[in-house]
Each structure stands twice: as structure tokens, then as C-alpha cells.
Amino acid sequence: MTLGGEKCLRLSRLVDHCLHPFTEEDGVVLESKGKEKELLIALSHVVTEVQRWVREIDGDSDNEGIQMPNSHEKRSDEQDQSLESHHYMTKIVSELVPLLAFENKYVKHLVGNVLTAVTKFIFLTGNASDWCELVHSLCFSMELVLARIISSPAPSITGSENLDFYLSILQPKLKNANFSTVAGLLQVLRNTLKFLKQEQSDLIGELFDSVNSCLSKIPWDLLGRILTEKICNIVEVQSNDDACSDNLHQRQGLKFLFLGNFVQFLCSLAEPSDFEEASCGSFKSHPLLGTIINLIPNLFDWCLNNQVDHFDRCLSRYFSHKLLILMIRLSFHCHLQCSTLVLWLQLCRNCFQNLLLLPKLELESTADTSLEDSPLIVSYFGDKRSPCSLHLRRLAVFLFLRCSLSFICKQPTEKCDPSIAIKSQLIYTTTLESKCDDCTCSKKGVLELYKWLLGNLPTNIFLDTNMYAKNCTKFASSFLQLYMHEDDLLFKVLLQLLRLPSHTEPCSSEGPSQEVKEVILFHVSNIFDPQHMFHIFLKELNYDHEMLLDYLMSKDAGIYCLEYLLRCLHIINDSRHALGDSSTILDILTDSSGKRRKVMLNSSTISEERLSGSLNQSNETLPSFEDTGNYDYGYKPQRVGVESLKKSKNCLHSLKTSLENLHRENLFPYNPKVLIKRLTKFLELPMEIK
């Protein structure tokens, strides 16, 4: 027997010796509370031993130090060696997984620790085939449990030559398994994934394969019926039978436990890592990500649309947070189809409509709204300006902008494919999806941005030429303030806004509403003009170059801050004037006087009602105008004042000096030469004011 096989044999003997007295062929058997205490002791012994073996391998200790317990209950060597090495993994899983259905939370916690330690131990032994067998057994156990819950036939393992062995070993032991068992398995798989990412192991691909095989074979429509099953007439049931009511509440609690762990595991699968970037994005094209994307509508239905009132307040916040995080991560991992973006925008409108509205046009001081500990602190749930509410609002707005701008950046010839809604087994009847064959992605993106702006801005912003520039500035400023206390999202959203086409560039779609779309993009581009936003950003930092240094050196936000600064400086340097094309932000806020060019809007032909009318129309199309009036597409807001430009230049000059000093002393974490070069070019630009 090989060295890896001997270690697997030792591990199998340890688990069998310690836990076999507590199990039978049909699952867990506990005779008394005393027996429960003995189980806790046995599990503690197993996890301690396996963790000790892991430490010994990690420390390159002599593996002969791994000692096995002596017991008359050991199986004979002949029986042990009758199994192939990789089959020991399935036997170990069959002993441990049934215990995850146990009501005692300490038992479930220890079982999860044992399985996690076992996956680490097998990984460190260097036997990839045994490790793959272990993960495959965990995933197949999850399939078997879910099949039992929904009363469907046992799943098959495509291409496996050992199906009978898996079924004969695992199926009898999982007769008493439930949603708690699946939740425990998901937690073990999540811990295993985190460990693999830390080790930068190629076995991440094997884990993805096993998980995708599992998820793709689960009948989600049948499982969804069970997950969305309501607790009917609880009060009536409780008045008749308290025990029955408690049992119903327990069953519902197990469903939410499963859903919480499931969504959390999917978030971990979609989480990017340095190792995946180094592997040239090989995992970004894995079919598992497509499987997860197809599950998104189902997750919204299970997690947000079918909750019991008793759980709503806490769980809706948790699930909203996790689903937003999951969708944002997937949007960075994958090239999303137009149909997927359409569906996601609709889900955002249906479930996060309130979150898409900014708290106020002019936000109050947010000095006390920075995130502390978890953004989901229960005590904050009722406060609309709490860290939790603001965090969810940031995520929802960012996802909305990412999807909307993705439409605009797509090729105009790309048509929507409504098949995603069919694949996800959910039917959406809105006109936006049913007519997706007749409209381009660009039109949808412009429409969504237009409606979002009307929901956040005074409806006469596009008509009142005297207040136009000020309202645009106030909105951009309040928008940026929302993100100033969450660094990584701040730069991600700023980078996202850089994708907007310039208002001097024509919209690249065809049709009778071409001019209208250009007008809407014109307004959006004025509000989120790159130089405009860059100036607001510096002002929000009080022109503090040390804050910029902190951002650049941050582990989470550093790379995004660097990219944002480089791209903004490139735009400004190309304009040939330092912030010369920026808007009147500081002049407005400091009440400085000056002439402004006006947007040539013909208010006699474009009424406020017609601009906002599409929000109340059943057919979600762009507003049609018989006469769109005269729009000055050469409109440029007034340039900023001299004092504002001086503060900006002083800030960036100090940043350049600090970067040079730190780089000279080898104290900066990476080479900042490119940034220094662009800062130098910026500082050489004239501060022309017109």
C-alpha cells in the first residue's frame, strides 16, 4: 500500500473507531443525553487528532508520529485492505455526514470541523485522487439528501463506474438527513474552497467540477416548491397543538438555514482571488458560473418573495446583501448576456426599488455612517440612514449602474435572448422582456438610466435652464457622498461611470428615438462628467493628499484607486488644461459668480409631463417626442475657479512628492512610476479659465 493509502487507512480507522458506536445502517441512534455527551467527546477527539496530523505535515514533521488508537472494535486489516484507497473517503463521509442532521448545534459544529480537517489532511498528503473522491462524495451526499427531501429518484453520477458503490455506502446512512445536513455540507465545501484559494491550488477546478455536477442535476423547480411552502394558519395550529406548531417553525428554520448557507457558498464560489487572476482567468469561463447565473431568479423567489413575517426583518437584510454581492461578483467574473442584464434590472426594480433612490438630494453629514463590524447589525435595521441601509443602497445602486451601463457599451446589433427566463423556470410578463427581440440593448440601458434619474432628481431639471448646472452638481455631489465611506465600492463605482460615452459622441443605435436617446445620454454625461466627478472627489477629500496615499496603499481599494487616478489623469491631460473642462462644482458651492452657457431646451415643445410620462406607462419604452427642440450638443459647463484649481494642483503636487519620496526609500508597496509620470504631466498643464 502506498504512503497516501496508509494515511487514508489510518484516517478511516480513526473515524470508524470513534464514531461507529453512535451510528447504525439507517442513521444516527442516541439512547440518552449521556450518549449525546459521549458523542461530543468522541468528535472532539477526532478533530483534535486530525488537526494534529495536519500540523505535523505542515511542519514537515516525521509522519511516523501519527499514532492510531488501539481497540478491539477495529476492523481487521483484511477487511480494510479489501477496499481501494479512494473508497476510504466515501466510507469516512458515510460515518460523518449523517451526524449533520443532529439537533444539537455543538454536534453539528464539531462534525463540520472534522470534515474540514479531513479535507485539509488529504490535500496535504498530496494524493489528488483521494482528495477528489472525498469532495465528490460530499457533493453526491448533498444530491442524495436533496433527492430524498423532494422525493425524487436518487441522482446518477454521469460517467462514474462506481455508482452502485456510492449508493450502497451513502444512501442507507442518509435516510434521516434533512436541510440541516445540506447546510452543513455547504459550510464544509465553503471552508474547503477558502483553504484551496489560500494554497493557490489547481484543485479549485476539481471542486468547481464536482459542485457544478451536483447543482446541474438538482430539480430546482421541485425543490423550490418545498422551499416556498408557507406555514399556514400558524396561530390556529398553535392553539390546537403547540408541539405541531413548534415542529412547523423548526422545519421553516431549517429551510432558511439551508438557503443562508447556500447563498453564502455561491458568493464564495464567485469571489475573485489573486490566484485566479494569476491563472489568466481560467475559472472565469467555468460552466459553474453559468449554472449560478441561471439560479439567480430562483434565489430571489425563495429568499425575498416567500418569507414568513416572523423572519422578514432580519433575513430580508441578510439575503438582500448576499444576493447583491453575488450578482456584483458574477458581473465581474462573466460576460453577461443581454437577456441576463434585462432580467437582473427587473429583479432590482422589483426587490430594491427603494434602495435605488438616494436618501436625499443633498446628503447630511455622514461622518457617523461608516461601517463598523458587520453591515447587518440587527440594532440598525429600522434606521433608513443606518450603516446597514446605506451599505445595501450602495450595493443596489452600483449593481444597477453596472447593468445599465453594460447595455450602452454592448454592440448595437446584439439582440436580447429571452431564454434565460425560461431556463430559470420563472415567468416574467413585463413588456420589457416580452419585446426584447424588437429593441437593442443600448435602448434598454438608456431607458433605465433615464427612469433612475427622474426618480432621484426634480422632474423639471431638464427644463429649468437656470438651475440645470446647479442641480446636476448637487446630484453628483450627493451621489459621491453616498460612497465616500466604503472605499472599495467608491472606486468601483467611479470606474464604472468612466464607461459612459461623452455627450459629444453620438449614440450608436438606429431608430426614430435616436435623437431622444442622445438627449438623455447628454444629461447623464453632464451629471457624471469624468473631470466633474474627479473635482468633486478631491473636494470631498478636502484636497488631502494623505488620504489619496492611504487609498493607494490599501489592500482592498489600492488597485482600484490607482486605476481611477490613472484614467482620470489621462482624460484631463488629453484635454490640455488642468481640470479645464470640469463643471462649476466649486463655484456653485462657494456662491461664486460667473456666466453659464445654457442648454438650449425648448420648453414650449417639451413639457415636464411628457418627459416623466414614461414612468407611468404600461409599455416601458423611451418617451417619444414630436419635436425634441433645439439641444446644444456643444454645451460645456463653465470651468472651475482659479482657487479651486490651485487646491487641486497643490493636492496632486503633494501626492507626487510623497510618492517620489516613498519610492526612493522603497517604502511604497508597488512601482508608482506611471502614476508619477501622469501627475507630472498634469502639473505642467495650464490652468486656463474661460
Automatic annotation (TrEMBL):
Regions of biased composition (Basic and acidic residues) lie at: 71-81
Lineage in the entry? Eukaryota, Viridiplantae, Streptophyta, Embryophyta, Tracheophyta
Domain Protein Lines N-terminal per the UniProt entry, residue ranges:
415-574
Which ranges does the record mark as transmembrane?
Answer: none
**Alphabetized Pfam families for the sequence:** LINES_C, LINES_N
Looking up InterPro entries in the UniProt record yields: Lines_C, LINES_N, Protein_Lines
Organism per entry:
Cucumis sativus
Q: Which residues form the Protein Lines C-terminal domain?
A: 650-682
Q: Where is this region: Disordered?
A: 60-81
Please report the name of this protein according to its UniProt entry.
Protein Lines C-terminal domain-containing protein
